[in-house]
Design brief:
- Strands 12-18-17-16-15-14-13-21-20 form a nine-stranded antiparallel sheet, with helices on both faces.
- It has helices at residues 27-30, 32-43, 165-169, 172-179, 202-208, 215-218, 220-225, 228-233, 277-285, 290-298, 344-361, 369-382, 416-430, and strands spanning 23-25, 48-52, 61-67, 70-76, 82-86, 101-103, 107-108, 115-116, 122-124, 144-150, 153-157, 188-198, 243-248, 251-255, 305-309, 313-316, 319-327, 330-340, 390-392, 401-402, 408-411.
- With 432 residues, the chain is an alpha+beta fold.
- Bound molecules: FE2/S2 (inorganic) cluster and fe (ii) ion (FE2).
Length: 432
């Protein structure tokens, strides 16, 4: 039976009935009750990205962030193991850490000084005689999440029975490996984060990183700021080799520049872009071998794809983008710049150049992000109207086909990635 959205039924339908194969209901962006259910059934049930390995470089390194709406601390203990725990004191609930990143020996709650180890265990509390015989310290550690990582990407989940992270990622793993090859022979590290809030539902953002269709329209002003080679590289609208694959579990990959899928397979035939002439000259002057100069500079433009993971992170060309749902119509986005992690005399110069390119698109004064954010705000404002009218995700529905790997595939401007994410959303919201 096909459900039609009507003025009569739209507020009566169950959340899982709001996703059809080629369209979804706008109510998914605006209904606070659906948002509450998403937090419980999605963000507190599945693997949520929390950090990159490089953000926790040493024993005692930590980062505070969120899993859904719940504040967490991600920390590295003295043995190198990574822990994710609720940033909530077991005494009367205060956050135990309000700093974004740092290096500590443990966490002491500022309210009554209960102190916790890097693994969240309760180590001590002042004037302990008041608890004599009534409390077992061993069960009063910070609430732990399960933490697993793949190729530097660290995820956590509240669900201790969730499938292993590697199973959840499945075919995504090979794409993460390709993405991480952009260090030009070095591992990847985070080099800066730009954070902002938009006034819209988190799923508008989830859709956007797999939305090739908006690129030449919304990013016309960015295209006007870049050199001819970069503009040409990003002109994938009519390139039949530029495709999007659905990878399962709501994940997808959009290959905008297919020839830059595997940076390690570079055969040296593509000339380095003249915009990097200064960087090339500087690296040569530092005595960097020619082969390494080529690798570092050829990787400057990142990989040719956006890898979108359900529900909260994407690896997009040359940066990570994370989303954090705050309320039904408020979402925090982080654009996390990355670059090679190697000898400072070599990588600092490369990363300086990577930051400038990042700022040109993603920064607060960038030519890309402000235009994206305007579009997302407008979707939220407009979709309040005509609640029975669907949000269409049918582009390319008729030309989608399985490729040799068995992945549903269509052109990169099609809405294959969104259909796949909403399919996962439907499954998780129905599951009870
Ligand atoms: S609330 Fe943390 S020690 Fe009292
Ligand atoms: Fe965009």
């Amino acid at each position: 039976m096909t459900i039609e959205f009507t003025e009569e039924n739209i507020y009566e339908l169950e959340p899982s009935d709001l996703v059809l194969s080629d369209r979804v209901a706008g109510r998914m962006y605006t209904d606070p009750e659906i948002f509450e259910q998403e937090m419980a059934k999605i963000f507190e049930k599945t693997w949520v990205w929390v950090a990159h390995d490089s953000e926790l470089p040493k024993a005692g390194s930590f980062k505070t962030t969120y899993v859904g709406r719940q504040p967490v601390i991600v920390s590295r203990d003295r043995k190198g193991a990574v822990h994710t725990m609720l940033n909530r004191c077991r005494h009367r609930g205060a956050t135990v850490c309000e700093t974004r990143t740092g290096q500590v020996n443990g966490f002491t709650c500022p309210y009554h000084a209960w102190s916790y180890g890097l693994d969240g265990a309760l180590r001590g509390l002042p004037y302990p005689d008041g608890y004599e015989g009534i409390m077992d310290k061993k069960v009063m550690g910070l609430k732990k999440l399960r933490t697993e990582s793949y190729n530097g990407m660290i995820f956590a989940t509240f669900d201790h029975d969730a499938e292993p992270l590697e199973d959840f990622l499945g075919d995504v793993k090979q794409w993460i490996d390709l993405f991480m090859a952009q260090g030009g022979g070095y591992p990847i590290k985070v080099i800066g984060t730009f954070r902002f809030t938009f006034r819209g539902n988190w799923k508008i953002q989830l859709e956007n990183t797999t939305d090739g269709y908006h690129f030449p329209i919304v990013h016309r002003s960015w295209m006007a700021t870049v050199d001819a080679e970069t503009a040409e590289m990003m002109s994938f609208m009519t390139d039949p080799a530029s495709v999007t694959h659905a990878l399962g579990n709501g994940h997808s990959v959009m290959q905008m520049v297919p020839e830059h899928t595997d940076l390690a397979a570079d055969d040296g035939s593509e000339p380095l872009q003249p915009r990097f002439d200064g960087l090339v000259a500087d690296l040569r002057a530092k005595g960097v071998p020619e082969e390494d100069v080529r690798k570092l500079v050829h990787s400057m433009h990142g990989t040719g794809f956006n890898l979108n993971l359900f529900p909260n992170v994407s690896m997009s060309i040359s940066f990570f983008r994370t989303l954090r749902p705050v309320s039904v119509n408020e979402t925090v986005i982080e654009h996390i710049a990355i670059g090679p992690d190697g000898p400072p005399e070599i990588v600092d110069r490369v990363n300086q150049e990577r930051m400038r390119a990042h700022e040109n698109f993603q920064g607060p004064f960038g030519f890309g992000t402000p235009d994206d954010a305007e579009g997302w705000d407008r979707v939220q404002r407009g979709s309040v109207g005509g609640p029975e009218l669907p949000i269409m995700v049918n582009r390319g529905f008729a030309r989608e086909a399985q490729n040799d790997a068995g992945w549903p595939t269509s052109h990169s401007t099609d809405e294959t990635g969104m259909r796949s994410a909403y399919h996962q959303w439907k499954d998780m919201m129905a599951d009870d």
